[in-house]
Amino acid sequence: MRHFIKEHYSHLYSQSQLEMYQDLSLYILPGKYWGKRLKSIYHQAFSFWHFHWNKAFTEINLQMSSTSEEFCRHDKAIVLVHRDKVVGLALVDRFDLTNPIHRKHNYFSNYPELIVEKLAQVSRGVITRTFGYLAIDPEYRKNYALADIILGLAVKEINCESNPFMITYTRNTRKTNELTYRLGAKCIGERLLVRGEDSDFVYFDHSSLEVLKQHPQFAVIDRLWEKRITDPLSEAYENQFLKGELNEESQL
């Protein structure tokens, strides 16, 4: 990725941005990781997530649990690492919005019922990704578009599926609503209160990819995705979920 970005996209970035993006790595880990190869990154990702979201909850006078079940229940963690240091992440999960049991999940306690109904109709029964708990190292927040890159990676991933659909709600006080619209989100509920803050409820679908392709950081997003680091054992179980079976190579 280093030479590709430098040769083809150096005119888009400052020297400091170019150097940082060249040294950025993407890890995709399950929320409940059982492997050994990426154990250190997994532990660092959890600590990073808990530290930053404990701080965010404190700011709005809420208490965050010190236990790990909220992290572990997610399908995946999208983790950006700069020179062995976690600098940003987000958590994604998946639900069937037409399944009444899934809709009883605590995640939807922050969704007005009417919004869930609308999303269920728009999704037309396809598996729905959720995107949340975005966290960026403050030292990297001002000069580098890591939030855009992480959300862009999530949009990139859902478009690997035949019927991509992803939902989230935003913290408008932190302008994450503007972030989602830059990446092709469509609004289904505007300025609704979540934990006392204005939030927009949005979704991404196949058309979001076309918006993503026009983003200034698309080259970085695309190359990070191509060079993503995963655990083969985790990938095997991902394939089992999507295809219903493990192939012989995945079992090795």
How would you explain this protein's 3D organization?
With 252 residues, the chain is α+β, with helices and mostly antiparallel strands. Helices cover 41% and strands 22% of the residues. The chain is built from eleven helices and seven strands. The chain has helices spanning 2-9, 15-22, 39-59, 69-72, 113-123, 138-141, 146-158, 176-182, 207-212, 218-226, 232-243, and strands at 24-30, 76-82, 85-95, 128-136, 166-169, 186-194, 197-204. The protein has a seven-stranded mixed sheet with strand order 1-2-3-4-5-7-6, sandwiched between helices. Strand 2 and strand 3 form a beta hairpin. Helix 1 packs antiparallel against helix 2 and helix 7 crosses helix 10. The model is unreliable at 244-252 (pLDDT under 50).
How far is it from the N-terminal to the C-terminal residue, by CA? 29 Å
Largest sheet: 7 strands, mixed
Low-confidence stretches: 244-252
Which structural class fits the helix and strand makeup?
alpha+beta
Which bin fits the share of residues in helices? 40-55%
Short structural description:
This protein is an alpha+beta fold.
Structural descriptors:
disordered C terminus; alpha+beta; 252 residues; 41% helix; seven-stranded mixed β-sheet
Topology (elements, then pairings):
Blueprint: H1 2-9, H2 15-22, E1 24-30, H3 39-59, H4 69-72, E2 76-82, E3 85-95, H5 113-123, E4 128-136, H6 138-141, H7 146-158, E5 166-169, H8 176-182, E6 186-194, E7 197-204, H9 207-212, H10 218-226, H11 232-243
Parallel strand pairs: 4-5
Antiparallel strand pairs: 1-2, 2-3, 3-4, 5-7, 6-7
